[in-house]
Specification:
nine-stranded mixed sheet; mainly beta; 592 residues; 39% strand; eight-stranded mixed sheet; elongated; single chain; disordered N terminus
């Protein structure tokens, strides 16, 4: 029983068993340490995180230091998007025409003073952080915003919902209780208005965003930021996130309605977006900054800006030469930044007030003109988050088509009492209609033109070419006058001891309420040898009213005039006649 070999084997077995047991125990402990289980978050409220909001970014930032892996607090894309401009030819809308442009180049009056900003992700564990340089606009006092707080894992991903709070810019910053030595993911957002902001939906992780007009209390100019903070170890201390700059996640669309080409101020225009018009509603998901549940059915959202809420561009700003000829309407829409849609701007009722000269004595009066149901469409448009787009709608007087030529509805006049153009030239405009003057004194001298109209100033352009929008109109050629001369459907109209020629177009032109009628009218007012001389060949209300009264219109060929005479012979009503180019005569433009 005292065999040494037996004892040795027994001892060896016991030692081996103990070593194996210890190894197994050590292995189990190590395995448990490697697979650490996330413990439920317990709010101890030992400290607070303070969120003072600062501004909204106006441009996409560029990283100054790309060496850090921390997310930017602005939450904005690094991608630099090329500015685009799309311009249409003249689009006919029936009783009014339009030239439309959409561009990322904003008018000079929008280049407000901005400040250079530098945002950072604040981290208690590091004194550094990345910065992003850009320009920003300060949030106005009273603007509401909301902050949502989650715990974060080692990679910065949100884990457990902690809470949310609403605040106002200019008052005490939002302060949310938190634990010490804990990593958090925070989100901040605003609609950039003064109304209560929609609460974060914890179940879906989203907040609703709708398209709106620029009402200070109801607009939804949605902007957003996110970042990470690790709280310090100071009990009852503060963790301040300095200078939070939000990135705009909507597209801003500025619509300018410009009536200068109608030669009349805008007196009423409500601009709106309807269903399937390129603006959308949706739900913005905070975790990945994406737009979900996108809908183009937005009619119930009442996306419009009333005439009185529009911005009236003042005189001498952005080439405004006549009051109330440019009005701007600002809208905001969420967007996914990828889907191409037709952008359709609607004006249900447009009213302008045109100057009209009285037949009796040429005294100045005014007439309100109405245009209904106008839509202005850009077929392909991709709205990018954070971008501003300027939509210019330049309204143009519609023409009357006779044969192959589009004729202006009325004569041209020089606005001798108006502001000069930036080039120091007179403005040339069209009359609302064609007055049948009862006296020679009633015809303004501004309605007669001499040979200097063929090349005005140093422009090398004639007065029709300079008429706004520049390059739209031109003086008629001799061939275009001959086209009217050869027409066999010319008519002579008589009112008392006065007459005029009218042509009813085969292609119907719309008339009232935007125009007095849809006919092409020429009323004869003779000519002058100088601006101060008596009027020749114009005898209204006299015994010679039909035999001696004639009309003269300049053509593109100096010295050749379109001459209008009272006649029952179609070939004699309108003819081209050679006379001294120095004579002052009427001008009727045609479309280029």
């Amino acid at each position: 029983m005292n065999n040494p070999s037996f004892l040795y084997g027994r001892i060896t077995f016991l030692l081996t068993f103990k070593v194996a047991f210890l190894l197994l125990l050590t292995s189990c402990k190590k395995s448990g340490s490697d697979s650490k289980i996330e413990e439920p978050y317990v709010a101890k409220n030992e400290t607070v995180i303070v969120f003072p909001l600062d501004a909204i970014e106006d441009i996409e930032p560029v990283d100054q230091n790309s060496g850090s892996g921390e997310p930017k607090s602005s939450g904005s894309s690094r991608e630099q998007l090329k500015k685009v401009t799309v311009q249409s030819e003249i689009v006919s809308l029936g009783d009014v025409d339009a030239m439309m442009t959409i561009s990322e180049e904003l008018p000079s009056s929008y280049q407000k003073e901005k400040r250079i900003i530098s945002t950072s992700s604040n981290r208690a564990s590091s004194s550094g952080g990345i910065t992003a340089a850009g320009t920003a606009t300060d949030l106005a006092p009273g603007t509401t915003y909301r902050v949502v707080l989650y715990t974060a894992d080692a990679s910065g991903n949100q884990v457990t919902y902690v809470g949310q709070a609403e605040g106002k810019v200019g008052t005490a910053a939002i302060s949310i209780p938190a634990n010490r030595n804990t990593k958090y993911r925070w989100y901040a957002y605003t609609n950039n208005n003064t109304s209560p902001i929609p609460a974060f939906n914890q179940a879906t992780g989203t907040v609703p965003v709708d398209p709106t007009g620029n009402n200070p209390s109801t607009r939804k100019d949605f902007a957003y930021a996110t970042g990470i903070i690790t709280t310090n170890n100071i009990k009852d201390g503060q963790n301040l996130i300095n200078g939070i700059v939000l990135a705009r996640k909507t597209s801003r669309i500025i619509v300018e309605v410009n009536s200068r080409g109608l030669f009349a101020p805008i007196t009423h225009a409500n601009v709106k977006f309807k269903d399937n018009s390129g603006v959308v509603s949706g739900n913005f998901r905070l975790s990945d900054a994406t737009l979900q549940n996108i809908s183009t059915a937005i009619a119930t959202k009442n996306v419009y800006v009333h005439h009185n809420a529009a911005y009236q561009v003042p005189l001498d700003v952005d080439t405004v030469l006549d009051e109330n000829t440019k009005r701007r309407y600002t809208f905001y829409t969420p967007t996914d930044g990828a889907t191409s849609r037709s952008l359709v701007v609607s004006i249900d009722t447009l009213k302008i007030t045109s100057q009209r000269l009285a037949d009796a004595d040429g005294s100045i009066g005014y007439v309100e003109r109405h245009f209904y149901g106008k839509t202005f469409e850009f077929p392909t448009f991709v709205a990018m988050p954070g971008k501003s787009y300027f939509v210019s709608i330049r309204l143009v007087e519609s023409a009357i088509t006779i044969g192959a030529t589009k004729w202006a509805r009325s004569n041209t006049w020089r606005d001798a009492n108006g502001k000069l153009t930036p080039a120091g030239l007179w403005q040339y405009k069209m009359r609302y209609d064609n007055p049948l003057y009862r006296t020679t004194a009633g015809v303004p001298t501004t309605d007669y033109f001499t040979s200097d109209v063929y090349s005005i100033g140093s422009t090398g352009k004639n007065l029709c070419e300079l008429m706004y929008p520049e390059g739209t109109w031109d003086l008629p050629t001799v061939a275009q006058v001959n086209e009217l001369r050869n027409l066999t459907s010319k008519n002579i109209g008589v009112e008392g001891s006065n007459w005029y020629m009218y042509i009813i177009p085969t292609t119907t032109a719309e008339g009232y309420p935007g125009h007095p009628h849809g006919n092409l009218i020429f009323t004869p007012v003779g000519y002058k040898l100088s601006s101060s001389a008596n009027t020749m060949d114009f005898y209204p209300n006299s015994a010679f009213w039909y035999t001696s009264t004639k009309g003269y219109w300049r053509t593109k060929t100096p010295g050749t005039f379109a001459t209008l005479s009272y006649s029952t012979n179609q070939a004699m009503i309108l003819q081209n006649q050679t006379m001294s180019s120095a004579r002052l005569a009427s001008v009727r433009c045609v479309r280029k």
